[in-house]
Amino acid sequence: MKDNNKRYVIVLTGGGTAGHVWPHFALFEGEKSPLANAFRENKLSVHYIGSQSGMEKDLVLINQPNWTYHSVATGKLRRYFSLKNFSDIFKIIFGFLQAFFLLGKIKASVVFSKGGFVSAPVVWAAWLRGVPIVIHESDATPALATKLTLPFSFLALVAFAETIPKMPPLFQKRVKHVGLPIRESLFSASKNDSLKFFNLESNKKTILIFGGSLGAQSLNNKMFNIIPELNKQFNIIHIVGKGNKSEIMNVNHYRQYEFLNQEMKYAYAAADLAICRAGASSIFELAAARVPMILVPLGLHASRGDQIVNARIFTNQGWAQIIDENTFQNESAIQLIESTMNSLDERKKALDSSPSAQTASKVSELIWDIILRYEANK
Ligand SMILES: CC(=O)N[C@H]1[C@@H](OP(=O)(O)OP(=O)(O)OC[C@H]2O[C@@H](n3ccc(=O)[nH]c3=O)[C@H](O)[C@@H]2O)O[C@H](CO)[C@@H](O)[C@@H]1O
């Protein structure tokens, strides 16, 4: 018999950077989201399993006081030789055991994983507990955490259709292209209020510069070389990343921040153009906010090249332009920025065909359906 007073439990996991955290929040926004409604009606409790020191902890504790946060030990799975790989194996095993006992206590109806190092042991523990697992990959190439958790998942969601053929063939049937869940609240600010928030004037166009959620020092340095020139014509909002603040701060029409939490909505509403890395959440959000973008993807020296592929897909569709970090030149960068500022209408029009912000409610529905089916068959 159906129990109408039953309280279901969702366990969220993922972390390291904000791109592995904010998509969870997106599932709990908006009137069309069944997860948001169930949570509001007290039919669903939300538990987040993250690391002790990753960005996810602060983001959850600050922004979601009604979720329960649990920290577990995490170890990094490096693709290169490092002595830390040996000690980290024990941390991963410990994290797995902690997650296993936690899941036994929490009695989860579903686990939703957004990837990052913390997520793999949680997914493995959930599988052993028989809890259905949904994973989501944001990037155009699957991350290691996704490859390690896909065999244990019930459903694997991807932001880019191009990711599906890159998944192991044995498991491709369980992969579904949905897009990237982004927060509705990111689009709730007006341009005027946002310019006021930054104390910037509306008679100048505004450039938003940021390097993902952690900031990107090498992108910052390149930008510092051209900011004095750009600042003659444009307002600039520059998010430099934690610990990266520089001497030049808040002069003329330049505003510098380490990180914007909920205030990121003002940055998107104020911006006429963004210059940024090509992390998946950043570019999907900018597209949904209809902000033309110039992408400087993180290169192969520091990543598996996921941002290069993300950026190429967006550029091929006409949704973005790319500057290669290795061949970056001040003069040509300034020229590209100026010419883009002179053709904003065209660039914005191109973004009309870009992915919409509807993914969050779709993913929320998929997960809610899994919760109901799992609980009905228990
Ligand atoms: C260096 C690195 O490993 N980068 C990866 C990481 O980046 P990261 O998670 O930083 O990058 P994403 O672009 O995916 O997400 C950034 C998120 O941070 C938010 N934001 C940004 C600045 C700020 O001040 N406040 C704020 O809230 C943005 O709105 C966005 O939601 O995960 C992404 C998703 O798998 C990958 O594509 C990136 O390659």
TrEMBL record:
Keywords: Cell cycle, Cell division, Cell membrane, Cell shape, Cell wall biogenesis/degradation, Glycosyltransferase, Membrane, Peptidoglycan synthesis, Transferase. Its EC number is 2.4.1.227. It comes from the Bacteria. Residues 10-148 form the Glycosyltransferase family 28 N-terminal domain. One of its GO terms (biological process) is carbohydrate metabolic process. Residues 206-348 form the Glycosyl transferase family 28 C-terminal domain. It is a peripheral membrane protein. GO terms for molecular function: undecaprenyldiphospho-muramoylpentapeptide beta-N-acetylglucosaminyltransferase activity. It is an enzyme of class 2 (transferase). Signal peptide: none annotated. CDD domains: GT28_MurG. Its main location: membrane. Belongs to the glycosyltransferase 28 family. MurG subfamily. This is UDP-N-acetylglucosamine--N-acetylmuramyl-(pentapeptide) pyrophosphoryl-undecaprenol N-acetylglucosamine transferase.
